[in-house]
């Protein structure tokens, strides 16, 4: 029996494993013979889908110095290590996503070596986990696709995000690519002269459109969007330390206002923080329903200011932890309203694109290589290709590529594992996304509301509880929280003996 099974070895799983070994080395407990099992398909082992080689030249949207799980500069130091390739990469502010994946894979390999040096037995199962069941005498049984079951005292679900949601029921239609990036075989089969509709106008959609151009695509490419919003462009922003809109301050506001606490309270306190930074809430630009021309004009305006600090971006970049606190305190009706009315625009503005990507997009729009279709309200598979209905009229495309990003809802068919967890009541869907869990511990809640002791969720599966889970610092904080509990379980008998 393994003491701990980690399902998923992408960014979250890799950092969790590393933090566990960090803590075990630090406390010096004798963990000889303790066993950890890492379960992940071979193709994404150590990188996850988000940072795997299939992402082409798509860039990180954080600079090298801020792309860190632990906040200690490890990634920047790894990039700057001696070696011609890394030195060349270190000169760029925004590196390819696959470079971060290479770093994660290196971190995982080194963490496994460190674990074995202190006596921990590490089993690596390069397979898909397809089920988790409660064990007959405690713990859990993890079933895999082809490698047999794994019995574990504790399990962490760190499989990453579900695939993009097929909101127009296009799955199975010829010419439909269900998710990009990564750029797999279905995507690479798109003919160079095809008319391509890229569903989604945020980071993934822009990366996909630019990737098509980089490989020599000659046919028309259009970004398809309901709200017509393009991401903001990252300015030359210094870090901002929150002064008023802090987790502690918002807990006090919640206690003071009681039942009156709501979205208006959050926006009021955030506006106050923005004023301290010399910005206004209206500067964020959450206006939706923009025409294609209006969206392009705002992109040009953002580019013109990109060499300057953008105060509201600095503030919002520091709010991930406090947003989680606020999200959990909001009434359910307020959270539902936000997801329906502000979520898409908030994420478009809150998660900016690098200047280099924005310049490439601007040039492509001006040359006519990339278009923007706003106000999309329906897409249907036709005899040949697809018909897109938008406020500006109808459009026809040969191919549709779904770049709407990870679905918040764990929909049926997202994976065999989540289907089993939900079907057997081991876990339950959160109304606001992901799985229901106990936020302060990360433990999963069963369908009957009971806490599943020893079963944790990390990353995208926790979006219902924390709202923002894609940011690397959020993943890092969650991993640290779970690592503390896993280490305590691994060393508890020794600690008890030491106290006695």
From TrEMBL:
Pfam families in alphabetical order: NAD_binding_9
Signal peptide segment: none
Location of the FAD-dependent urate hydroxylase HpyO/Asp monooxygenase CreE-like FAD/NAD(P)-binding domain: 5-161
Name by which UniProt lists this protein: Uncharacterized NAD(P)/FAD-binding protein YdhS
Organism: Amycolatopsis xylanica
